[in-house]
Amino acid sequence: MAIITISRGSYSKGKEVAEEVASALGYECVSREVLLDASDRFNIPEMRLVRAIHDAPSILERLGREKQAYIAYIRCALARRARKDNVVYHGLAGHLLLKGIPHVLKVRIISDLEDRVKSEMERERMNEQEARSLILRDDEERRRWTRTLFGLDPWDSALYDLVLHIRKLTVADAAALICKAAKLKQFETTREARQKMDDLVVACEVKAAFVEEYTDVGVVCEFGNVLIYCKSGERIEHKLQEKAKKLTREISGVHHMEVHCGIPAPARAV
Amino acid sequence: MQPLTTEMILVMGMIGLAVFLFIVEWVRVDVVAILMMVALPLLHLVTPKEAFIGLSSNAVVSIIAVIIIGAGLDKTGIINRLVTPIVRLAGNSPSRIVIAISLTVAGISSFMQNVGAAALFLPAVQRVSKALKIPISKLLMPIGFSAILGGTVTLVGSSPLILLNDLTAQFKLKPFGLFDVTPIGLGLVVSGIGCFILFGRFILPQGSETSMEETGKEEISTLLQQIGEAYELKTPDEFTHYRDPVRIEDIRRRYLVNVVAVMEPPDFKVMSPTADMEVRSGVDLVVYGEEKDVRRMAEQEGMILKNSIEVFRNEVTEGASGTVEAVVAPRSPLAGKTLKQVDLQDRFRVTPLAIYRHGESYRAEIGDLVLGVGDAILIHGTWKRLQALQAEKSLLFTTPVDVDLMRPEKAVFAAFWLVTALIMILVFKIQLSVCLMTGALGMIVTKVLSIDEAYQSVDWRTIFLLAGLIPLGIATEKTGTAAWIAHTVLNAIGTVSPIVLFSIIGVLSTVFTLVISNVGATVLLVPLVVNMAIAAHADPRMAALVVGLATSNSFILPTHQVNALYMGPGRYRSVDFMKAGAVVSVVFLIVMIGMMYVFYGV
User: Fold this and answer.
1) Confidence grade of residue B481 (pLDDT, cut at 50, 70, 90)
2) Higher pLDDT, B470 or B316
3) If DSSP codes are grouped into helix, strand and coil, which group holds residue A169?
4) Which end of chain A has fewer CB atoms < 10 Å from its terminal CB, N or C?
């Protein structure tokens, strides 16, 4: 009845929690599947997609278009998965990529650094110092990624509905709490919620179709009416319009499409 | 030849600055002119008296009077009444319609500001296009070009020609008479229209005839379809329970349906509700939209669609309210703003339904589009409120709604005063500005238009653009800069025959008028070319005349106001102007030089 996104640091037991929630609720549990979908559909090697969603953009990349494009592809794949409903997603940035959807339960799983270091040492067979610096670096990388792309701090608890600390709470406790929350009325898939999810999928599809050529387009979709914003140049307006007309026929669920050039995209745009 | 002095360098610097500002448009062109008006006396390049002499010049007074006379003619609806018989005369053939309307526009434009004449005909041409199913792009460009060309038929037709006598006065040249340019002007008009009749299918937008017809038809039909029809709905009593508030603008964005009237219980009726008004439970609302969209909305939002208009049957009738297409006028205060900023809904209580621009329609979100000259907006409202909007003059309506404001019974007086002014010019040879002002005064005294309306019609931007640039011309001449440049240029090109020199001047003026305004080009070039002509032993009067005429040769880029105005409604792109404009511009230069050769023996 809901979409659950679980955000986590490495070795924070997030995956275990996600799997347990999925099996308890009978939901599908996805993470890498999304990347595989995107890789398949847009013909991009999975490794590049992993890098795009994991590593913070370097200064050069911030100017470039590649990473933006990859993220749009991943978002598109994720939105399509999420539309099927009853999904637990424990990959990166789910709570950010599915913004504006009312029936998404956003969970953050954290655990103590010492525990994480221990798990990493066990799994990767490395010494403590190596493990610690690897985890710290990884956390820092995530932080920069979210900052540069979304202007947010992943450690800001206000981004989530639920932040669970795995220490006193076991994985099973955490899963039980999440299951209980997911059954609340607020996370029911209402008709409005389904509409918003459908709109997000359409917006993501349109954005994915545009992003390779025009990185700075923002797409908003409401009840099948798509608005494409492009801040730069009214010179390319004509080209965008041609493309939009083609897409109106190609993408299902599009009712009407408009291109607004020279106008910055609103915050809710994909 | 004089050596180069500091003053000359300063003047050239100021010219350079003016041209630069004209091109980059950091400030508006009239502000650049005022800047010149102030900077030149400060640099001691002209005396303070000379700096402001432009304001009292013959040219400026003539322009003011021409604008008032034009406004008077407009007020009486003479021009609107001209269109119907002309179209009937022309029949159904597109070529004949183009010829008939173009000649009329050219005739009117020869006594009015070009853009004013073009604006007057825009609604009529749109109606003709719709009625006879001729693509609008086939009509507007020839007509727009004729409006510009018509400006060359008399000495009061365009600003450069009005300026001419003032600029040549300092050289003690014999002033031009009102109809001295007429043979050349007529030649230009005829050849311009001829270009479109002969080569229309090659130079007008979009190659094949059939695709043009199709797109033309498609545009008209979708235009009507997209507005849709009026439907009345009711929200149930539990409409607002357990949901986010639904606002008027949400409905438009989600379903492409426009709410034009709302009645809150018990009987509080609001026409054209504002975008942020919330739709509550138990209200009746009238919407405009396509049936499928309205049905989709009713289903999704849980509204009840009524079979007919019930509550608003008195308000939503053809007699009380309607939809009009309005075009953003040149120099309209609306240009450069968004509908959200302008807020027509709040100020005039009318509802914008859609925007058409460059052949694209915008319906889902129109509040954030930056309006440009020539954008067409579909607006719904009661006739009374639409009239108030029209009276503001920032929009040109395709369907006239201000029948009350017109004074058709004064047409005789308007015509009488126009003829009087012309007789004074032609028969009694009184100075242009005095004759025209007499005509303008006559119209005010006989109540064709009130003095306030006369003041309001005067476009101060044109006045200051003219008046501000005149001192620049004076400075160029007084400091000897013009003579210096002329000699330098002549030394560079060597000895040439007058006809070659005039051709070069013609090309030069054409280039200047495309990048800086026609007035700017005239003011800068006239002192220059007069000096050149004197040095090359050609007729300086003719050289000045070439500038005055060729600065109307502005067709290749949509920079001329008329072209800018017609660009949107005609769904033209810059490329279209380049294609047709290039041909017309070349023909213009050839015909101009040829006619001068024949009539003035240059």
Assistant:
1) confident
2) B470
3) coil
4) N
Fold: same for A3-187 and A197-261: no
DSSP string, B567-593: HTTTT--HHHHHHHHHHHHHHHHHHHH
Closest CA to B226 of B199, B251, B256: B256
Contact of B182 with B150, CB cutoff 8 Å: no
Radius of gyration of chain A (CA): 19
- Token digits of residue B17: 């600055």
Q: In degrees, to the nearest 5, what angle opens at C-alpha B540 toward C-alphas B191 and B173?
A: 110
Nearest to B146 by CA among B96, B182, B110: B110
**Are the Cβ atoms of A263 and B360 closer than 8 angstroms?**
no
Q: Is there a contact between A223 and B573 if contact means CB atoms under 8 Å apart?
A: no
Chain B positions touching A223 (Cβ under 8 A) are 253-255, 296, 300
Whether the CB of A248 is below 8 Å from some CB of chain B: the reply is: no
Give the pLDDT score at A63: 54
Query: Do A203 and A226 meet the contact criterion of CB atoms below 8 Å apart?
Result: yes
Write down the number of H helices and E strands in chain A: 11, 8
Q: Where are the domains of chain A?
A: 3-187, 197-261
Residue B440: other Cβ atoms inside 10 A: 27
- Amino acid residing at B318: E
Average pLDDT, chain A: 84
Does the structure show a pLDDT above 70 at B218? Answer: no
| CATH architecture group of domain A197-261 | 2-Layer Sandwich (3.30)
Residue position matching structure tokens 């220059």: B528
Closest alpha carbon within chain B to A264: B368
A231 pLDDT tier (thresholds 50, 70, 90): confident
Angle between the N-to-C axes of helices B58-76 and B432-445, in degrees from 0 to 180, rounded to the nearest 10: 30
Compare all CA atoms of chain A with the CA of B362 and give the residue at the minimum distance. A258
Which superfamily does A3-187 belong to? Answer: P-loop containing nucleotide triphosphate hydrolases (3.40.50.300)
Q: Show the tokens assigned to A47.
A: 């490794």
3-state secondary structure of A30: strand
Kindly provide the ipTM of the predicted complex, given to two decimals. 0.73
Residue whose C-alpha is closest to residue B507's, from B563, B537, B547: B547
List CB contacts of B469: < 8 A, sequence separation 6 or more: B18, B33, B36, B54, B519, B520, B523
Binned at pLDDT 50, 70 and 90, residue B224 comes out as low
Give the model's confidence band at B548: pLDDT under 50 very low, under 70 low, under 90 confident, else very high.
very high
CA–CA separation, A222 and B272 (whole Å)? 23
